[in-house]
Design a protein that fits this description.
49% of the residues lie in helices and 20% in strands. By secondary structure, the protein is α+β, with helices and mostly antiparallel strands. A hairpin with a 3-residue loop joins strand 12 and strand 13. Pfam families: Peptidase_M56.
């Protein structure tokens, strides 16, 4: 169940981080839409997409296992997350099947397409050499495609619906080879996978659209560095726009996709050619701002998630009956100094000792591990009531358990070994104290009970 909870947490936190960055850049991006910063816009939309793919916040939150006990499983948490994960899994399977059906149909058509002649293949090789593309890319004729496009990652193909004039072919091949050089199809396939996983997030459709149109604009910018006739290049695109495009933008990279995107591309190229001052400085500043926002979001959402999860776990934890007065006797306290060599890992609960206060707990603890509360200041003569039961979920529970209090100097007052551990521990001097439980055995223990701080007895 822990693995399922972590998968759910990763999806939730990636959705949160990706959505925040999407909303931020959607607002800020409008301010510099026509300022000519093509490369920075494309890069940032890639960053937004990656925030959905990489569970950065979950990795950060997992680091809190050193300072708080994350992912404790309670009955309500188990049921709610279980139901949500079933719904998510069903939706992911449905959207994945739909995508694979479209991909399979396109692939079948392309595999049956006719290869072009040696003259056209030689032309592609010549342009590839000029652009620094070392992969051999085959050109095929597929009339039903409707327009020129690039397909495939491992075995890329340039698809032509018909044979164009030599000058047009030069522009088409340059455009498609630049797409390959920019790895645009890899980004599109990654976006498709993310859209299947996060099918419930409508904003991803716009992220895909933004990534696609900025990718096309970035391709245009690079193409115009190699082709002197910019007007002729866009005239070719306009001519192709009159043809009916059969395959969409989801699995291919084409010279033309829609009139709206074409208009945007031409406007952005005009802005790029007109404004060249301070581009690098502004690009660095915008990137730095996105990095700061990402780091802040990761930090805030990570801490917020850990605290919220811990609070829900505390509130939904079942109360444990550790016995009634008369059938369990208080154990005599023992004393020792804290020795970190006894344990492999120590986790700090998000709880602090306070006078006339306490909490119930259900803590799962592995062998040679230790759980502690945060420090709280206690006066000399204060009493800490401690009760724990190790046998409420198992027939043969781990009984080699120590539970007690430890002061700021590492001196421990504790009781140990037994199915039921109950005692009243007296604070011997003023100072800062923590409640701890330590598994000294060889198997995982589940301890349920409570601790309570009293100033008088």
């Amino acid at each position: 169940m822990i693995i399922i909870i972590k998968i759910f947490s990763g999806i939730f936190l990636c959705t949160l981080l990706g959505t925040i960055l999407y909303l931020f850049w959607k607002a800020v991006g409008r301010l510099i839409e026509h300022k000519g910063y093509i490369d920075i816009n494309y890069l940032i939309w890639k960053m937004v997409l990656l925030m959905f793919a990489i569970p950065i916040t979950l990795i950060y939150a997992n680091g809190f296992e050193k300072s708080t006990y994350v992912f404790e499983v309670t009955g309500p948490i188990k049921w709610v997350i279980g139901i949500l994960m079933i719904i998510w899994l069903v939706g992911t399977i449905i959207f994945t099947i739909r995508f694979l059906e479209k991909y399979r149909a396109i692939r079948k058509d392309i595999l049956n397409a006719d290869p072009c002649g040696d003259e056209i293949q030689s032309m592609v090789k010549s342009i590839s050499k000029k652009l620094g593309v070392h992969k051999e890319i085959q050109v095929v004729i597929l009339e039903k495609a409707g327009g020129p496009m690039l397909y495939g990652i491992l075995k890329p193909r340039i698809i032509l619906p018909r044979i164009y004039a030599p000058q047009q072919l030069n522009m088409i091949f340059t455009h498609e080879l630049i797409h390959y050089k920019h790895h645009d199809l890899i980004w599109k396939h990654l976006a498709n996978i993310i859209c299947c996983i996060y099918w419930f997030q409508p904003a991803l459709k716009d992220v895909f659209y933004q990534l696609d149109q900025w990718g096309e604009t970035y391709c245009d910018r690079t193409v115009c560095e190699y082709l002197p006739d910019v007007k002729g290049y866009f005239s070719t695109i306009i001519d192709i726009s009159m043809e009916e495009i059969r395959y969409g933008r989801y699995t291919t990279a084409g010279l033309y996709e829609s009139k709206e995107v074409l208009k945007l591309r031409m406007e952005r190229m005009k802005s790029y050619r007109q404004q060249r001052r301070l581009r690098r400085g502004i690009s660095v500043s915008v990137l730095f701002g996105m990095i700061i926002l990402s780091a802040t979001t990761v930090f805030a959402s990570g801490i917020g998630f850990v605290k919220t999860y811990d609070k829900i776990a505390d509130e939904t934890r079942e109360e444990i009956n550790v016995g009634t007065e008369g059938d369990i006797k208080d154990q005599k306290a023992k004393y020792r100094m804290y020795d970190k060599t006894r344990i492999k890992k120590c986790m700090i609960k998000n709880e602090r000792l306070k006078e006339n206060d306490g909490k119930p707990f259900t803590w799962k603890i592995k062998p040679k591990e230790r759980i502690e509360t945060k420090e709280g200041y206690l006066n000399k003569g204060t009493y800490v009531d401690i009760a724990a039961c190790m046998g409420f979920e198992e027939e043969h529970p781990e009984t080699h358990i120590a539970i007690g209090i430890v002061d700021e100097d590492g001196e421990e007052t504790y009781i140990e070994n037994g199915v039921n551990l109950v005692s009243v521990l007296k604070v011997k001097k003023d100072g800062r104290y923590r409640v701890f439980i330590e598994n000294q055995g060889t198997k995982k223990a589940i301890a349920g009970g409570y601790y309570w701080v009293e100033t008088e007895k």
